[in-house]
Amino acid sequence: MANLSTPAAWTRVTHSSFVADNADNNTYRCVFDEDFKYVLLPVSYGIVCVVGLFLNLLALYGFIFRIKTWNASTTYMFNLAVSDTLYVVSLPLLVYYYAMGDNWPFGVGLCKIVRFLFYTNLYCSILFLLCISIHRFLGICYPLKSLQWGHVRYARRVSVIVWVVTVVCQLPVLFFVTTSMRRGTITCHDTSSKDLFGQFVIYSSVMMVLLFCIPFLVIIVCYCLMARRLLQPTRGMSRLSRSKKKSVKMIIIVLVVFSVCFLPFHVTRSLYYSFRSWDLSCQTLNAINLAYKVTRPLASTNSCLDPVLYFLAGQRFMKLTGNKIPWKLQNEMAMGTVPNGPLGTSNDTDTTSKDVKS
């Protein structure tokens, strides 16, 4: 780390997608050592690609060929698996790009598409997790209403809305993202050109509020209300039932996954985009830059963790090689009346329904 007085001193940061774009402005004189990302990013993206592709293809196989009758949860999770699969198939290009030291030989069109797929998958995952959480919330806290609003036809309509909203909101990425030639290599920026960077920061901030902050708050509220309902003692039972314990564990797992994959990425990205206007030391700026580079592949790991949720959700993916799930059992799972019902609501919904009727 050093303070230098001439633009020529930026030769060691030519691969930085943000700092290099602003080098000509002579705003900062910090030299960042980014050699770590040429190992971290190819390895992490490669692992996510292999593991995520295998798990999501396995999940899609289960949805299409092993589940005869779908319910609302199945519909949301199928769309989530489709989103994850579209993203992981683009990762080999990023693996090659970072392994070659930020050299993109595939053209500006593929650069735009790869970045677009990342943000589309990111926010599709968040919104479908929101749909799954609201569906689970209704099943536990308002079981009678969930019989109507939790129907598969509503889930299909909501899924179409999620896709349309996400794609429309991410279309500006295709406009902002571009490539540039630097010292004989082509950089595929994940932001924008220098003259559009200010507008890109505003756009990204709006997307973060609408597609991350608000859904995250709704999920937290839903899970708090669900946890309070699940932890209430059931008549004739002194301890939590097995199904209720499973539901509580599922709530914790989803919150942890959500926080680990999405929260650090959005926080560090906001700091990373904002540091140009901050009068901070080079050590602080380098720490922000390092944190952002680390959380980028961390955000991608949701493509590997989402299939784990399918297994934990009781969709019987562990028996993909066996017989198809019978129609009667699927209906029971949709109503939440079997221990292995969708998303672990199981007997809790049934028990709650009896309480309401009594």
UniProtKB/TrEMBL annotation:
<feature type="transmembrane region" description="Helical">
    <location>
        <begin position="201"/>
        <end position="226"/>
    </location>
</feature>
<keyword id="KW-0472">Membrane</keyword>
<dbReference type="Pfam" id="PF00001">
    <property type="entry name" value="7tm_1"/>
</dbReference>
<dbReference type="InterPro" id="IPR017452">
    <property type="entry name" value="GPCR_Rhodpsn_7TM"/>
</dbReference>
<dbReference type="GO" id="GO:0007200">
    <property type="term" value="P:phospholipase C-activating G protein-coupled receptor signaling pathway"/>
</dbReference>
<feature type="domain" description="G-protein coupled receptors family 1 profile">
    <location>
        <begin position="55"/>
        <end position="310"/>
    </location>
</feature>
<feature type="transmembrane region" description="Helical">
    <location>
        <begin position="160"/>
        <end position="181"/>
    </location>
</feature>
<dbReference type="GO" id="GO:0045030">
    <property type="term" value="F:G protein-coupled UTP receptor activity"/>
</dbReference>
<keyword id="KW-1015">Disulfide bond</keyword>
<comment type="similarity">
    <text>Belongs to the G-protein coupled receptor 1 family.</text>
</comment>
<keyword id="KW-1003">Cell membrane</keyword>
<feature type="transmembrane region" description="Helical">
    <location>
        <begin position="247"/>
        <end position="267"/>
    </location>
</feature>
<feature type="transmembrane region" description="Helical">
    <location>
        <begin position="118"/>
        <end position="139"/>
    </location>
</feature>
<dbReference type="GO" id="GO:0005886">
    <property type="term" value="C:plasma membrane"/>
</dbReference>
<dbReference type="GO" id="GO:0045028">
    <property type="term" value="F:G protein-coupled purinergic nucleotide receptor activity"/>
</dbReference>
<dbReference type="GO" id="GO:0007186">
    <property type="term" value="P:G protein-coupled receptor signaling pathway"/>
</dbReference>
<keyword id="KW-0675">Receptor</keyword>
<feature type="transmembrane region" description="Helical">
    <location>
        <begin position="43"/>
        <end position="64"/>
    </location>
</feature>
<dbReference type="InterPro" id="IPR000276">
    <property type="entry name" value="GPCR_Rhodpsn"/>
</dbReference>
<feature type="region of interest" description="Disordered">
    <location>
        <begin position="338"/>
        <end position="358"/>
    </location>
</feature>
<dbReference type="GO" id="GO:0070257">
    <property type="term" value="P:positive regulation of mucus secretion"/>
</dbReference>
<dbReference type="InterPro" id="IPR000356">
    <property type="entry name" value="P2Y2_rcpt"/>
</dbReference>
<protein>
    <recommendedName>
        <fullName>P2Y purinoceptor 2</fullName>
    </recommendedName>
</protein>
<dbReference type="GO" id="GO:0097746">
    <property type="term" value="P:blood vessel diameter maintenance"/>
</dbReference>
<keyword id="KW-0807">Transducer</keyword>
<keyword id="KW-0297">G-protein coupled receptor</keyword>
<feature type="transmembrane region" description="Helical">
    <location>
        <begin position="76"/>
        <end position="98"/>
    </location>
</feature>
<keyword id="KW-0812">Transmembrane</keyword>
<keyword id="KW-1133">Transmembrane helix</keyword>
<dbReference type="GO" id="GO:0031686">
    <property type="term" value="F:A1 adenosine receptor binding"/>
</dbReference>
